[in-house]
From TrEMBL:
Binding, a divalent metal cation: H45, H129, H133
Record keyword Mitochondrion present: no
Coiled coil (residue ranges): none
Gene3D superfamilies per UniProt: dinb family like domain (1.20.120.450)
Pfam (any one): DinB
Family, per entry: Belongs to the DinB family.
Keyword annotations from UniProtKB, A to Z: Metal-binding
Entry keyword annotation includes Metal-binding: yes
GO MF terms, alphabetically ordered: metal ion binding
Domain of life from the UniProt record: Bacteria
Protein name: DinB family protein
Amino acid sequence: MDKDTLVTLLKYKLWADTATLQSIQETDDSIHPEKHHLMLRLMNHIYVVDRIFQANMTSQQHGYTALNTPETPSVEELRVNMRECTEWYIERVSAMQDADLAEVIRFQFVDGGKGEMKSLDMINHVLFHGTYHRGAVGWLISECGGIPPKDVVTVFLRDHNH
């Protein structure tokens, strides 16, 4: 996958995360509070994993001991945190060369196991992992009477990728 495609997909991720959080915010949390809480937990999980892979890509310690945090952030906290993190990925990938994408990075999984992945594979994981969980959140939004976003790549490319 070329760098320009990765940047476009990261911009799509930013747009889709933002739209999903907006839909969560517009959903009445008093009707199904447990499902609303689960939506936030899933979005926070996406963010935590994004941050873990960010740390792995920069050979930094991430400080996470689990794939989610004990506390559940608000929609607004997630909006800010997820935007900052994805903007970091966009800047990072924009500055990378093909050789950087092929670089093999060794790291520790949160459970303590040893890992080894190319930068490109880490970025792909961040992209696909988030899409998987946003799909579950969209389902929960529907179950709570809300309207999930049309967070598909085709809509992004048609309406938002200028």
